[in-house]
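Task 17 of the worksheet. Students: predict the tertiary structure of the chain below and write it out as structure tokens. Keep your answer in the requested format; marks are given for formatting as well as content.
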Amino acid sequence: MTKKILLWILVIFWMSLIFYFSSFNGIDSTKQSQGFLYNTLGKIIDIVNPNIDVEKKDLIIQRLDTPIRKIAHASVYFILAILVYLLLKEYNIKKIYLTSFIICFLYACSDEIHQLYVSDRSGELLDVLIDSVGSVMLLLFIYLKSKVIVRSK
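Model answer:
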């Protein structure tokens, strides 16, 4: 299998995964993320403070729910940006950073529009911004890394 085909498959798979998770209604989405938080963060809290009472533990998890969900948004688009960048690199696209960003941004917009049609979900401009920040972070990292490598040669 050629590298281009593999990258196409990975980009489409990752976009499909984003679409799939965005298809969960609001109740199921909340249950899923809270279940993840209670299973992972709850165990970390138990290790750090084994004597913590359930109410305090629940309060900590509730306070961290939104920041962790937003970090997850950025991380998902960070990965999408990696995949899109690598795919475009195979085609020697001229403005690769801008093109990669535009693709990720437009997909983030389409994802939020998609959520407008899912029960108990909403399309959030803030989420598009957070998704875009995830993409920009990766692209900026690659850009700066390429400048450091060029200088050191």
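Marker's comment: Residues 3-152 form one domain. Helices lie at 3-22, 26-48, 54-90, 96-116, 125-152.
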